[in-house]
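Lecture 7 notes: from sequence to structure.

We start with a single chain of 867 residues. Read the sequence below before looking at the structure.
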Amino acid sequence: MFRIIFISFLFLTFSAGAQVKAPSRRVYLDKNGVIRWKDNRQEVALFGANYCLPSASDYRAAGYVTHDRKQLVDQDMAHFARMGWDGLRLCLWGDFENTDGEGNLRNNDHLDLMDYLMAKAKQRGIYFLLSPIVTYSSLWPDAMGDTASIDGISKKYKKSELGTNPKAIAAQQNYLGQLLNHVNPYTQTAWKDEPAILFIELINEPWHHSKDVQGSIRYINALVEAVRSTGCQKILFHNVSQDFDMAAAMQQSKVQGATFAWYPSGLNAGRTLPGNYLPVVDDYSLMGKPELSKMAKIVYEFDHPDQLTGYMFPAMVRTFRSVGAQFATMFSYDMLATAPYNLGWQTHFFNMVYTPVKAVSGIIAAEVMKQLPRGKHYGTYPANTTFGPFRISYEENLSEMVTADKFLYANSTKTAPPNRAALKKIIGYGSSPVVAYQGKGLYFLDKVKEGTWRLEVYPDAVLVDDPFKMPSPGKVVSRAISRNWPMEVLLPDLGSAFSVVPLNAGNTYATGAREGKFSIQPGVYILSADPHFQKEALPRQLGYLGIDEFIAPKDQALPLQVVVHPQQEYPLGKPLLVQAEVYGPKDPESVTLFVKQAGPRFVSVPMKQDGGYTYTAALPAEKVREGWLEYCIVVKGEGQTFNFPSGIQKSPYDWDYYGSENWKARVVGPIIPLRLLHPAEDEKGLAVTRMDHDFRFNVFKLLPASHTGEAAFRLEMPWNDPSVEDYTVSVPVKDKISGRKEDLSAAQSLVLEVKGVSRKHEAYITLVESDGTSWSRKISLDPDWKALQVPLRELQRSRGAMLPLGYPGRFRYWFEPAANRGGPGDRVRMEAVEWLQLSLRPTAGKSPAAGSNSWIEITAATVMFHK
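Now the structure, written as tokens:
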């Protein structure tokens, strides 16, 4: 049985929109397919997220942690406003949960929550894209055995017949008509007349029948006519990214715009994906199809799944703007109460409080949408890492925006704004030349008037587990910790001494700054240099926020936790450096590293606090011996002992110590080979070419090698599919290389333990660097095991496979060499390699005969060094 966890929050009675007008502006589509505001003819540019609480898995996830789903709506829409987001996709699984088989509308809790969400989002200044038909089961993934609670259109009819069966089409028309005529009891407005609904996407990701152009036109027009029959004049869209061949039918239909999605890192990896995906998002050229040139374009879903980065969102929106998108909503926003567990959608994770780095990148992405012109391209990676007032960096895990009056950064930065005196808004995580902060929560600084700023600080959000593994309501992956941390604010109008006055309800923490420095804890504050400052003189609102409004979670009741990213190898002759994050509500009394090399005895090394939660220890080089070692970390605090990773309450120096679950590594000399491929360990982390949209499983096996019994990968080229130009297995090796970077300047060759048969196929080994530049060599195969030596100097600059393959469709398959590479003497930079790839490709001009498949087995790939 699920353990029900209740989270309480700080609230104020605040009627958002009491002084700020709710969305009421109208839009129109000009002759070039550009969406414009009617009042001033300016282009529309909106950004936000999908928010799925009223339906399906998010509806159930909310029920696991609270009985008041409307309270979650209140909290999350306040955070939308805090981020400055103004776009929301309303995705309603009405075709499952709100209709019968004939499309008759059912007014139930799902519909009531959607009505409530609309009303509350309107109060926060947000405009909507409505997607009333979803097509995917509302029971996925946690209620697949429950078939009694739904009996809607999409249960009665298969997805494949929604666009072809006349009865299914009639049911959808009936549903659309009734839904748009439905009157929202919270706004007293019918959906068809709701000014905040700007766009309607007729059906989410339908089963396209693009080869039947006339049938596709009839289906699209049938849905358009159902909407128009109600008197609704919203701009209507149809999906194209599930099948770009639909562009021709859409051009000839009555629909006005195209919707598209993009997941460049694939979906459902089941783990956090390492590596640099910026080269993957240089372009989205498929949206440039001539048939779509006069159609409006919006992005209904996007994300970089299975990653928490500070740079991908702005990069993706940069590319969306280059193809003319005017509305983009990431998928999907995690509710504040479910976010600690990432309960909503395993492969996605985004919440303003619990994913602060990604959240600031989302705030910056909204600015990218508004500030970059449509249709402008910025080149290829890495030349496109600066665009307009924006900069992104894989190496720094950073995006930032620097204008005359705004300074936004998703991680610590050394960039300085041009004129601090002109700043009016600062949003950040970490530290900058303007704000120094040791905490791990995001913060907002808004200028109220000269010498007066509003500071909003959120709890630290720390990852204590991989958020992309299988979720559970009983497993916290992101932990909130409310602590007092030093902060320094350097703004000319505040000066070096100013007061720090609490604003939000229940907050009594007040202090003052000296030399711009003070300590702070989560809450809302006024920083003022005015000795006569009075709270009563403050405005009631800051945009769509109450001036004293603050919604943040209470800390979870969790013990001390230690998070280490263990290194597999350490270089001989240098101090053995170990770093750990120690998470708890207060600093521990002591943190000690215990290291055991040959023999039963541990050596202890005190770990020193480097700042925030980070502790570091170094075992002196003269005490580090070549060979295998293991280590653990012991934390003492509040009269208790915590041993990590074993979890026991014992120290290795205790007489009855019995811990055995330790981290393990090895110490190696500079010429010891570095093994990059170990199939038994790498199976869960690899990515493999997806054959097509439906055929997603991997065509490889893990089996014992016939000569040693050690695990080996076996790849077989799908000979019966002539369209497959490449089949690649890609193994991340960044973590393996990280501990040996200084040795890699002496790397000489790559030795592959391999065998195989290439019948009209060729085998290739490829090393892919972080900038996408790839280095390959064709390898010869033999049916008997052999050690094949590939000198690194013989690797040629080439193309690597972009894996995991993006979704939907196959936008780009190949990494091309980075824009700044290719000069004389350019060669593989082993210290920058992030993936090792093994590929089978058809030999040019030859097609395999039936029954003749090529295969390859590999059990090791090892870097050899100069002796």
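DSSP finds twelve helices and 53 strands in the chain. Keep this in mind for problem set 3.
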